Structures are given as C-alpha cells and as structure tokens.
Amino acid sequence: MKTINAHDAIGEALAEEMRRDSTVLAFGEGIATKRKALVDEFGRRRVRNTPLAEGIIAGTAAGAAATGLRPVVDLLFAPFMAFSMEEIVNSAGKLRFISGGQFSFPLVAMAMTGAGWSVGAQHNHNLEAWFVHSPGLKVVMPSTPADFKGLLKAAIRDDNPVVFFSDIGLLYVPGEVPDGDHVVPIGKAATRRAGTDVTLVSYGKTVPSCLKAADALASDGISAEVIDLRSLKPWDEEAVLASVRKTGRLVVVHEASRTAGFGAEVAATVAEKAFDALRAPVVRLAGPDAPPAASYPLEQAFVPQPDLIALSARQLVGRAARVSSPAPVLVAAGA
Amino acid sequence: MGTTPAEIRPEALLEEMILIRRFEERTSATLTSGGFMGTCTCVGQEASAVGVVSALGPNDLILTNHRSAGHLLARGADPGRILAEVMGRSTGYCKGKSGTLHVSVKELGVILTSTIVGGELSLAPGVGLSVSMKGEDAVVACFFGDGAACEGVFHESMNLAAVWNLPVLFVCENNQWQAFVHRKETMLGDHIAPRAAGYGVEWEVVDGNDVEAVRDAAARAVARIRETGKPFLLETFTYRQRGHFEPDDQSYVDPSELASWKARDPIALLTAALVERGTLTAEGVAAIEARVSERLDAAFAFASSSPYPDVAELTTDVYA
C-alpha cells in the first residue's frame, strides 16, 4: 500500500498497462508533454501529443481500436467532448452493433470535469448522463486514487469503449493505493460506509461529501450507508437495491444537473424494483439546471454540500422539519 | 502482402462496372416498388469505385460512405449478402443490423460504410495508425465526397494523417452533389484536391468517369504511399446520375448538366473505347450483361428467401 494522488494513479495505470500490452497507446491534448515518464519509457510512437481537435482524436481512437490497438485518449475537459460526440457515440458506441459484431472498439476516452478550478462552464460540465444514455458505451467516474488506477486498468482491458471522467476536485487528493496489479471491475459499486437508517448513493466528489454527512449524522444517532457507484454504465443496481431494502430511505447525490441526471435513473430503478421497501420518498440532491459558474462561491454552491446531504437525511428519518422540495433547499443552503 | 494487384483486363473492369450499375438499378426498383425506402446509389460513379479498388492489394483496407455498393462489389463482396443486408435479412454481412447505409465486411478489409457524412474521414487516421504501428505495408483507402470535404473533419483528418505520416489514400469522389445541394452552393472552386498542398500532402485530380485513368492514378498514388508512408489525396471528378436517395425525381437537377454528364457515362465510355480497340464486340457486351444478370438473379433469390433476424438480435452485439 502506498499513498498517491489520482493524477499519479492514472499515470501508474497507463504505465502498467502499456508495459503489459504492446497494443496500448495513449494520445491526446498534451499527454506527451504532461506525462514525460510515459514518453521516456514507451517513446513518442506510443505516447503522442495531438492537435486540439477532439473530433479527430476520438475518431482516430475508434479507427485504431477497430483494427487491433487499444488507445487511451485524453480529451482534456468534458465540455470539449461535444466536439467528439459523433465519433464516440455514432462510431465507437454503435459500430459494433451495426457491423453485426464484426468489429470491437476497445478504447478509453478520458476527460476532466467538475467544480474546483473556477474554470467556468466551458471547462466544467458534468455531462456523464449524455454518455450513459448512449448505447454501446461504458462510463466510469471514480472518487479515490485506488479506483482511478483500478478502473482505468479495467477500462483499458475492456473490449468496449469506456468514457472515463476525472473529477477535477479529486485529482490531487492523496489516498492509499494497493500494491501490485490493482484492477477494479467496471460495474461494481463500493460501500464506503455501512449503515442501517438511510442510504446515500453518489459518485465523484460528492462521495467524500456523503461521508462527511454520514459522520455528522452519526453524531445525531442516524446510521447512514454510503455507496460509491464508481461505474455509471453498467451500474451496480444490486448494491443499491440491497442497501435500500435494508435502510428503507434513499438520497442520491451528484454534482451534475438534476433534470435527467443519473440520479433520476437510480431513483426510477429503486421505485420500480424496491418500492415496497421505501419508508420515505427518494430524494435527489444535484446541481441546478444551469451552467456552472466560474466565481468560486457560486461554483461551490452548485455542488451539493455535506450539510445539505445531512439535512436531507435527517428529514427522511423524521429528525428535521420537512420542506416541500429539496431542490430549493440545495440552492439556499449552498448560496 | 499489400502489394500491387495483378493486372486486370479492361474487360474485367467493364464487367465490374456493369455489375454495380445493374445492382443499383435493380435494388432501387425492387425496394421502392415494394414500398420500402431505397438506397443511396453510386450510379454514374462506377469508374471511381472500380478504378480505385482495383488498384488496391489484398491486405489494403477500405473506409467508405453511404454510396458504398460500388466499393463493396469492386472489392469482391457477394451481391447476395449485400442485398440481404439492404433488405434487412439475417444473412447480410452485418446480420441485417446495418441496412443499406452502413455495410462493413471485415473479411474483405472493408471496415466501415459511414452514413454520417465525414464519419469515414474521422476513423481513417486511426486505421492508418494501426497499420503503421504494426509495421504493415497496407494502405487505407478512405472514400468520401465533396460534401464531406466541406466539413471540419476533412481538415482534421488530413492534417493528422499528414503530421503522423499515416498511409491513407484519401479518395474524394467529387460527384457534384451534397445530398440535395449542388456543390457550387457550398464551396468555391471546382476541386478539393488542391487543398492537400496546404497540409503538405501530395494530390492529383483525375477524370472520374474514365476507369482506366482512375486505375492508373490510384495505382500511382498507392505506390507513392507505400514508398513514403505518407497520405495522398486523389480526387475523382465524376457525377451522381441519380438522386440523393431513392426514390428521387431529381426535379432539382439542371437537365442540361445531367445530360452532359450522361453523355460521358463511364460504362459507355469504356465500352466504346474497347470496341474501337477491337477487344470487345457487341456479343461480348451481351455476354457480360447475361453473366451479370444471372449473378443478380441468384443474389435476389438468395436475399429475398433469407430470413429476417430474430427479435433477440435487438440487443446482441451491443457489447463485446
């Protein structure tokens, strides 16, 4: 076990997989500049800078993947992926099916997103639901350095296109990473804290917020279970359903905007499959339907914070006055 | 390996072009008479398809666009299996999941038919990268039109193939039409290929209705790519004789322009040249037509008697 941050965990995953498999290569906007150790070990043929052209980067990854390589591409910031939707969604995601299974697209498309650097809405936009809604893709968004490493290694080995989101706010937070060939299976959630009264489901930077909220709730005598989804497609329905059947209460928390965000999928699935276990309505805590602002206080207010999560959980277990709708509470509490 | 293919007699090129023409005509007639939407045909562009594909070697790879029947048939694809795909049957090359617009045939190195205009351009550098990283000498032929050349992906693809020295033969089939819009409304100048100079890429414009000229130009371009490892842009200047998508009454087409191009029909041009050279007779043409007709009879019989895919196929092949 060692302690490193997520940025370095990504570097370790890339190096280990490139060492293991000569068909793995990495290219993108400045990856050869920023990850010099990879260039030193694997050379400029396997670690390449590209033009700032997300469409052709993703398209090139799809073409290379269809013909025997395993590319990992760095598209920098998630909103830039709007330029590569054609290649990721229409080519990488669909052409396996369209070709009747003749071709596979083992590629990883990486991008950063989320509050933390005050970069504003054209660099910060949690748009993971776009890709979750697109067939043929897998989508992951880790919250710990260990998962950054383990999920990236799994994504590289996967024979399908995987969209890998890095939460900006977590990139330089240190954490323990197991030694050896640490691979985290895609589609498996992690229960970060066990509890019996309420289930907090999240991913990315709001996972640590849920853990802080769970600490606060514990001091009130409320036992919260915290589930880190890690993978959004496929997602671990069973883990969430099992937890809700135990606690009877669910709060889904994410930074992405509320409407048709991933929380809606979780809430709907629980309503369909575990309605009888619910002792209170499902609550979604999410960013507002607005572009994230650059100004630091506004950027932070966009994201559900621990005090709001704890308040919502208390309301669900009947230890706080209820309000009519959680959404205005979010904005009021954050602002 | 992907070396220069064996010499092909002009009569064989003619037969391939006639096969493509009759395939497109019969497919369109059959589908539209059956109440189905038809296909995007390559009628008028047969010389471009046959000329370029005949200059490729067996290990070379192809990416193409929604007018791909010519490229597929010239590559040796089974007309029955293409037709089965067009008709949504399980015996099609893609199990009926592609339809007419996205046929790929892995065993022939046809990686993609993209119906998103420009999609083939976005994948081409990656296929070239695979070839280059594996140290193979294959060439990647990427067929697109003047419409795709007016998209940003044309620039991105050419630029990346150039800076990474990728063995891509970019083939712009300039057929004058971009869906329902004439290219004169969307670009200045008549040609795409000279733009290659801006990327440091070699280029040539060839008469796209002269199959022997296309084949010679493509053979030169392929040889140049194998020699340098760098991309090349070949423009075949041709004409889409039928509408964008069948059925199409072409009421938006200038009749005099269409007539002038039909007067230079690629099949008629080669037939006349071979008759004049004394290597082909009227009986020879009739024999070609008879062989083609027989092949297509068999193809239509195979496709129309093939089963539709099972409904369970809706969700297979989505993930590996």
Give an overview of the whole structure.
The complex is a heterodimer of chains A (335) and B (320). Chain A has 335 residues and is α/β, with parallel strands linked by helices. Chain A folds into two domains: 2-177, 3-Layer(aba) Sandwich (Rossmann fold); 190-334, Rossmann fold (3-Layer(aba) Sandwich). Chain A contains 14 helices and 14 strands. Chain A has helices at 6-20, 31-34, 36-42, 54-66, 85-92, 95-98, 128-132, 145-157, 206-219, 237-247, 262-273, 296-302, 306-316, 326-334, and strands spanning 2-4, 24-28, 47-49, 70-77, 108-113, 138-140, 162-167, 175-177, 190-193, 198-202, 224-228, 231-233, 250-257, 283-287. In chain A, the strands form three sheets. Chain A has a seven-stranded mixed beta sheet, with helices on both faces. In chain A, strand 6, helix 8 and strand 7 (162-167) form a beta-alpha-beta unit. In chain A, helix 4 (54-66) runs parallel beside helix 5, helix 9 packs across helix 13 and helix 10 packs across helix 11 (262-273). Chain A is globular. Chain A starts with a strand and ends with a helix. Residues 324-335 of chain A have low confidence and may be disordered. With 320 residues, chain B is an alpha/beta fold. A six-stranded parallel beta sheet of chain B has the order 2-1-3-4-8-7, sandwiched between helices. In chain B, strands 5-6 form a two-stranded antiparallel ribbon. In chain B, helix 7 links the parallel strand 7 and strand 8 (232-237). Chain B is globular. The interface between A and B is large, with 43 and 45 residues.
Rg of Cα set of chain A: 20 Å
Global mean pLDDT of chain A: 95
The helicity of chain B comes to 40-55%
Note the main sheet of chain B. 6 strands, parallel
H/E order of the elements of chain A? EHEHHEHEHHEHEHEEEEHEEHEHEHHH
Briefly say what this structure is:
Chain A contains 14 helices and 14 strands. With 335 residues, chain A is of the alpha/beta class. In chain A, the strands form three sheets. Chain A has a seven-stranded mixed sheet, sandwiched between helices. A five-stranded mixed sheet of chain A has the order 9-11-10-13-14, with helices on both faces.
